[in-house]
Amino acid sequence: MKPLAGTAVIGIGNEFRRDDGVGWAAIALLCEREARRPLPSGTELVRCDGDPGRLMTLWEDKALTLVIDACFPPAAQPGRTHRWCVAPGEMPHPAAAGRQSTHGLGLAEALCLADSLGRGPGRLIVYAVEGADRSLGTGLTPAVSAALPHLARRIEEDVRKHGERTRRTSFEPGSPLV
Questions:
Q1: Pairing of strands 7-12, 81-86
Q2: Contacts (Cβ under 8 Å, ≥6 apart) of 69
Q3: What is the C-alpha to C-alpha distance for residues 11 and 163, in angstroms, rounded to an integer?
Q4: What is the pTM of this model?
Q5: Tens of pLDDT along 35-78?
Q6: Would you say 8 and 57 are in contact if contact means Cβ atoms under 8 Å apart?
Q7: Dihedral (Cα; 82, 86, 89, 92), 10-degree rounding
Q8: 8 and 114 Cβ atoms separated by less than 8 Å
Q9: Inter-residue contact 92 to 36 (CB < 8 Å)
């Protein structure tokens, strides 16, 4: 088994389904911000449509994976962001596993498949942003758009904190979570 190294920040979504594009918009903002303040070496910022096979390829062998996706619960508060830390082999919070996505298979199904194939992520942090509109069209609703700067800062903090822990504690990939 290969040692885990690096970080993948994966924005899941569809920019042609309004608020479902929040993952991709977050990645675009993180790329802009990285030009001014680079993230730790080994950090990849990528967009994905949520296909389980592509997700597995993106997070495989990564020590840390952060996933950003929209969710559409029945009583949504657009822009409200949920953060879950998921240990290897565990499922995200039950609300994240619900059929509230515009993707054919959701993140929970991708994690189940990956774990059964031995291709799950190392440490996983999920950010789910509540959306208001998943109709056809481009552009985020104002409330979801307004949530992006704070979301980007939290993601950058997670990435930097993990990178700093790795350097400071001589964390060896594959050792217990820190």
A1: unpaired
A2: 11, 12, 13, 22, 23, 50, 101, 107, 126, 127, 128, 129
A3: 20
A4: 0.83
A5: 999 999 999 999 999 998 899 999 988 999 999 999 999 999 99
A6: no
A7: -10
A8: no
A9: no
